[in-house]
Amino acid sequence: MYLPKIYEKFQAKFPEVFKDFQQLGKTCRASGPLEKKYQDLANLGIAIGASSRGAVMSQTRKALESGASQEEIVHVVLLSLTTIGFPNMIAAVGWVNEVLEGA
After folding, report:
1. CB-based contacts of 33: which residues, under 8 Å, 6+ apart?
2. 51, 90 contact by CB (below 8 A)
3. Could you list the pLDDT tens digit for every one of the 103 residues in the chain?
């Protein structure tokens, strides 16, 4: 799995914080009824809303790995249009396409 250099550097510099962060994510995932694929699609939508290029690309990869189709991923991006506006949605299209074109 691809990890950005800044992510790896943070992990090396703050191993305990990183370990706790990972555990929090696992606890959050285990605390509800959604299957992993739908959790990853929801997280993709959240990343799109936050306009975070890195998170959008990461969540796109995770959604693919958990069985989401490219069509489902693109639909999540399209759903963001009326909430975050056209320019932000188009930016997300570009970020998602960077991952999908490499898949």
Report:
1. none
2. no
3. 678 899 999 999 999 999 999 999 999 999 999 999 999 999 999 999 999 999 999 999 999 999 999 999 999 999 999 999 999 999 999 999 999 998 7
Residue 36 amino acid letter: K
Nearest to 36 by CA among 53, 17, 59: 59
User: How far apart, in whole angstroms, are the C-alpha atoms of residue 49 and residue 71?
Assistant: 19
The whole-angstrom distance between residue 39's C-alpha and the CA centroid of its chain comes to 10
**Rounded distance between C-alpha atoms, residue 72 and residue 29, angstroms:** 20
Question: What pTM does this model have?
Answer: 0.90
